[in-house]
Design a protein that fits this description.
It is built from five helices and no strands. By secondary structure, it is mainly α. It is elongated and about 50 Å long. This is 7808_t:CDS:1.
Length: 69
């Protein structure tokens, strides 16, 4: 019997890992372009990311609280 729930979870984890690996390679400008086009964040959020020069690993570890500081 197939375990569809486990298969879906494995697929989801693989997609997230692929996305994280891709983001790790971004500088600030590439990250903002990606967030604007693919994630469709609003301009205020993107401006904050740009002003704080957030890129690659820093973005992956970013939380709402850290972004507000």
């Amino acid at each position: 019997m197939r375990d569809y729930k486990s298969e879906a979870l494995s697929t989801s984890i693989a997609k997230k890992k692929k996305l994280i690996d891709m983001i790790k390679k971004f500088n600030t400008k590439k990250l903002i372009k990606f967030l604007l086009e693919e994630i469709q964040l609003d301009k205020d959020d993107l401006d904050t990311i740009y002003e704080k020069k957030v890129s690659d690993h820093a973005f992956i570890k970013l939380t709402k609280d850290k972004l507000k500081k």
